[in-house]
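Q: What residues go here?
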């Protein structure tokens, strides 16, 4: 269901959420229903619908561009070592319309109820989209409309054993890929002490054939200059 679709008489259902476009004279009406109902009118003659997984920090409104994934059980990393693990992350779904080499955002929804938390102290800390995940040694099976899979490379650059309980990421650098089976993103975490780590996203699909999702920040024409985040309030 993710990908490009013809606008004319398009309808689908994702989980308990139904989406459809209805022709009404000279315009189309977008309708999303899941207990409540959202409508929006579109004036276009030749548009196409794009359904994409997007950065999970937009609901119920834009309040942050950071995400914290809390590990269900802490991870103990030996000195001067690297390991790749898999996590899950929440999915938000965006509906776009594309016409005349331009893309417009129609709607964003999710099958997951968003939670937020504070990373750091109350005065200088940051609000993060909060998510809990197990640590997997192999790719987990997930519902791709609810959860994505993240490959995280954890490097302990310190000379001591260090316990890692979460990862905080700047979503501005997030790259999301998808295919028929899953939604995927990759990131790295370089631990430099028991309280400090540098994190960043990696622009690389898991396998050939995966399509890159449209980035909301690109669609909104937001200039992004940073690509990493320093965790300095603990791991």
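A:
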């Amino acid at each position: 269901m993710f990908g490009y679709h013809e606008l004319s008489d398009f309808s689908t259902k994702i989980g308990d959420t139904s989406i459809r476009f209805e022709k009404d004279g000279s315009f189309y009406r977008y309708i999303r229903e899941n207990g409540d109902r959202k409508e929006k009118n579109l004036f276009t003659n030749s548009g196409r619908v794009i359904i994409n997984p997007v950065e999970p920090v937009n609901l119920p409104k834009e309040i942050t561009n950071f995400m914290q994934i809390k590990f269900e059980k802490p991870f103990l990393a030996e000195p001067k070592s690297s390991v790749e693990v898999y996590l899950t992350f929440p999915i938000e779904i965006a509906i776009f319309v594309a016409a005349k080499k331009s893309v417009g955002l129609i709607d964003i929804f999710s099958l997951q109820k968003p939670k937020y938390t504070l990373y750091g102290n109350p005065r200088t800390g940051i609000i993060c989209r909060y998510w809990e995940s197990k640590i997997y040694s192999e790719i987990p099976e997930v519902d791709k409309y609810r959860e994505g899979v993240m490959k995280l490379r954890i490097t302990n650059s310190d000379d001591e054993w260090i316990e890692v309980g979460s990862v905080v990421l700047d979503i501005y650098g997030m790259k999301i890929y998808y295919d028929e089976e899953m939604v995927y993103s990759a990131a790295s975490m370089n631990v430099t002490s028991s309280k400090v780590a540098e994190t960043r996203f990696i622009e690389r699909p898991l396998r050939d054939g995966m399509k890159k999702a449209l980035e909301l920040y690109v669609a909104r024409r937001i200039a992004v200059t940073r690509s990493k985040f320093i965790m300095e309030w603990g791991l």
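A: Context that may help when evaluating the design: The longest strand covers residues 66-77. The chain has a mean pLDDT of 92.
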